[in-house]
């Protein structure tokens, strides 16, 4: 495909010849043409648009007159697409197609396409060419149709983006014949391979799939009844229970996890009960393998162990828990796929009680994923930020993503304020994902891709990448408020939000991050992002000689052809993401074309894509990965463990939920010097970190105790099912009294008599020195309490206050203005009824 990406690669066609010369001249002199103005800095990737005003067409009575089938490789017409046409793909010059709407007059305000039948697709087009599957700066996006019947309707409008008056639509029916002999889906690869021996005991079984007569697997047909594992004996076999089964969001792979026994023969089966989106039954598949004779070694994490207890089961409801958070009020919060927030008090033993449902969107549903309390939130000022989008997982509306602030202080009437609207949304479940605050106070979040590998494909609804897709975005909350809320970040269809502007509240921090569910700013100052790679079957864009490349230069190497139906499953990676880095997922709107590490040498290159010809370069700013999880693992929720449980053995290590292959909690330890060097420990080596879990999606730590809570999404993709599991630390975090030995010489400051039953506690303790969560008990009701934090020489380094509740208790987050130095401090809580104090160790 040619990829000469200028804003418009062709001159707009003249109006229809039937328009009189006088009217034509009047039209030419009356319209205002807004051409793009490119940034003067050649290293800057995108364009700065001079005007965002779309001019409404000067004609009335618009109508769609015909459809033209387009060769998306050359952008040239193939034939007129008329009612009743049958397209034989084997007889066409290419399988990469698109459809152009032809209108009278030739310039209309906008058009809206609706394609139904064997594939479903909707498209709004404001700027020419008026293409059913859109274009990338004037270059037609490719569509590879599947077998079946289609109905195509297109309606013109007098204004941009479907505004103004609707004109006369055109509807046709046509059929596609791909020439394939079978329409049944089938397995193309299995891991471990058939006949494998010495298979690890935590190895999951995954298959790649192909769909001659469809686009993806019907995920409702993928379950423990249709995907099975058997123990094989000399004359018989027995079904293995307790398995976890899921498919990828794109429906292009299936994975089973189970508790495997050493030195045992197994048989993996998929039945014809699995069907594709058109109802075609999968060709049954069987493979066999034998496990290793050895059990895993605990390594340096010996004596780290957790005890599992299920707190919430599937009977709770019908929506899965997408994100877990422990608030500054020391309560457990769980966001759901239906847009609710569930809340519980945490008992001293880690179990939960006093359930409250919070409804940010009233009775409306939203897919709520990101949920993070503000750094300055307190128990009496519960300010948080959430990300959310349309609550569907097939044919989801584009531009439905939002970032909102929510105040949860009064659960019965949460206050929601939209900060960002019109973030892109994929056809399926790639969306605006989890949130984390950086040290700079900005909010960082991953925006999922619209495609498998950068170019249109049927499994992802043939939806092209938008400018903000497949990236880590940064939201400057102060700028957003200064410019007026909400910030509209729509980058197409009559809108031209520029994320590269110096005044932009939402900017692109890093690119090429395909689909990261979560991210964490580590205490070592680095941003770590576990990311889901694509299953087999995606398409990649071409990099044409003479095209502007992602570093701002003109690419002078040999043309890298587009690839279709790539039969290589891409790895799942942990990235150490830095500002401006590219991490492997192409987006032609950002002049990024090469998938992962390309194929630069004849050797085994990191993140190599074998379908590329040897010599295919990496993108100039490709930064590689810090750790490879392998294939079909789906690493999602991630935290940094912060408590001193197990005498600090886990402190500073990252815990990652492996949702698909593995179905466990994995431990990742960044090196103190080389922060891209990761030591990994699989969940099977830590008691309590692998059952296997039923699709673990997110994880949170109670830093006061070292206990963990995980969300098991249970039902794989889509809405999921609710389940929360407590993993109780067998050696809990040390209490504040355990630090007394460090402070034996520290002076104790007393201003008022201490009361024996009063208490003040701090966690985590020891503490990194930037945020102290403080609790007081047994003061008088509604009593003002002053906190003074003293250093070792008696200087007050922080002062704040709270008012206790009706029970004489209260909590507060103390955020010091400057990082505390290592050492021992005294925190004193004083009220009219008395005072108490505790020691705090800063490490």
TrEMBL record:
Residues 183-291 form the SbsA Ig-like domain. The keyword Signal applies. The keyword Amino-acid biosynthesis does not apply. Residues 762-842 form the Secretion system C-terminal sorting domain. SUPFAM superfamilies: Soluble quinoprotein glucose dehydrogenase. Pfam families: Big_5, Por_Secre_tail. InterPro entries: 6-blade_b-propeller_TolB-like (IPR011042), Quinoprot_gluc/sorb_DH_b-prop (IPR011041), SbsA_Ig (IPR032812), Secre_tail (IPR026444). Transmembrane segments: none annotated. Keywords: Signal. It comes from the Bacteria. This is Uncharacterized protein.
